[in-house]
Specification:
The protein is an alpha+beta fold. 32% of the residues lie in helices and 24% in strands. A five-stranded antiparallel sheet has the order 5-6-7-8-9. Strands 2-1-13-12 form a four-stranded mixed sheet. It has a four-stranded antiparallel sheet with strand order 3-4-11-10. The longest helix is centred in the middle third of the chain and has 16 residues, at 167-182.
Length: 267
């Protein structure tokens, strides 16, 4: 896969949210389902909709159920789960990021319309005149744009660098790796970025061997989320834990972006 071009596309797709001034309309085949889908705008101008209602439009042959605190959509080649409080939904082994969480309101599971459309092979368009237009597609997600090898190595470097960090911190470590892949200053693949030795070993886990340890479950999740477009720490290319190292070159020579957990991120 041409990772640099693919990463640019993923980053742009992940950045697309619906403007807060969007008309209160959710149009599907000319019909307005805004009220039926209990649609509403939340933080960042993101439009949330009823999972059951919209899944019924995008995957009409699938069955929606509620089991042990999780909403499920099953059938016609798709298995999707969304648990209120989680910052992701899963579909056919993939994980899609939901920054403001899956929500449960008055017994209705609400998810962002874009994430649900991506999960079920549909598309979302928006205009100031018509509001949100949902375009049904295949009813199932496209194949992932990443390989098993990319998932293997990204999950391991995330795990080795950020055990004990929150999910956001793990996403940020993964973001740094993929930002480097996308940058002309670094190698073009995840593996080559991790094991880059042009200016010495880039990641401590490569030097001490912990990059080869089995990753934690949450690190695998974080890797899937990042590979499918989730980003944290902006355009950071470097990170360090100042309390755990005597080498503060990054802090002295790069621009601070954010701090998450014990890691400081720089570009």
């Amino acid at each position: 896969m041409k990772m640099k071009q693919a990463l640019l596309g993923l980053t742009l797709a992940a950045a697309l949210v619906l403007p807060a001034s969007a008309a209160d309309a959710l149009r599907v085949n000319g019909q307005d389902l805004w009220t039926q889908a209990r649609a509403r705008l939340v933080e960042g101008g993101t439009t949330y909709v009823s999972l059951r209602t919209v899944a019924g439009v995008l995957a009409p042959n699938a069955v929606v159920s509620w089991e042990n605190g999780t909403a499920w959509v099953r059938g016609s080649g798709v298995t999707l789960s969304a648990r209120p409080g989680d910052q992701w939904l899963t579909v056919n082994g993939r994980a899609l990021y939901i920054p403001y969480e899956v929500r449960l309101e008055d017994g209705t599971t609400l998810v962002p319309v874009r994430a649900l459309a991506q999960a079920l092979g549909g598309e979302v368009d928006w205009s100031r005149k018509d509001g949100v237009t949902l375009i049904p597609g295949s009813g199932r997600p496209a194949d992932p744009s990443y390989t098993e090898e990319e998932l293997y190595w990204l999950s391991r470097i995330i795990s080795a660098e950020s055990r004990g960090e929150p999910l956001l911190g793990k996403l940020a470590v993964g973001t740094v790796v993929l930002n480097r892949v996308a940058s002309d200053e670094f190698p073009d693949t995840i593996y080559d970025v991790i094991f880059d030795r042009k200016w010495g070993v880039q990641f401590t886990p490569v030097a001490n061997g912990t990059v080869y340890d089995d990753p934690t479950e949450e690190s695998v999740l974080a890797a899937k989320l990042v590979l499918d477009g989730a980003r944290a720490a902006g355009d950071s290319l470097y990170f360090l834990a100042p309390d755990l190292t005597d080498n503060h070159w990054i802090m002295e020579n790069q621009t601070h972006v954010t701090t998450i957990g014990c890691h400081w991120f720089y570009k």
